[in-house]
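Following up on my earlier thread - several people asked me to post the actual chain instead of describing it. Fair enough. Here it is, all 162 residues.
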Amino acid sequence: MNMAKIKFTWLALAIIVISGILFYSNSFDCSFQFDDAKVIVKNEKISDIRNYANSKFWSNLNLRPLSYSSFAMNYALHGDSVWGYHLVNLLIHIINGFLVFFLSRFLIGLSNRNERFPGRLVDYASLIIALIFLLHPLQTMGVTYIVQRMTSMAAMFYMLSV
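Reply from S.P.:
Thanks for posting it. Predicted structure:
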């Protein structure tokens, strides 16, 4: 990878981070909504992180142990203050934006083996795709609705597996 491509990659990642923060930072004060109260505020299992040290809990994947343990870690750090939960949701969404950028650059690069398009066009298209994913109004629920962290984490692990 040449130096210009490396510089563009870092610039694209910075644009993704800044865009995500600018678009979603106003959600940090939003209160718990809908299932948030049941899953986080009123859930006694969340309030004690030691509950997640039990291997029996981790053996039942239907209980979504990774998602619930992330809520428990948030609760241990922030209690019932929503700011920390929204921050983690935003970080997961920004990571997903990174993954969309790299995945789209890879896939567009595969279709560009004959170099019909200049390399810069592939990079710009990948950044635009990542920004559309990151900032699309449909993504608002995944970032601002705390329980939807489960969906964002599923998307993150799916893209990581690809």
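The radius of gyration is 18 Å. That should answer part of your original question.
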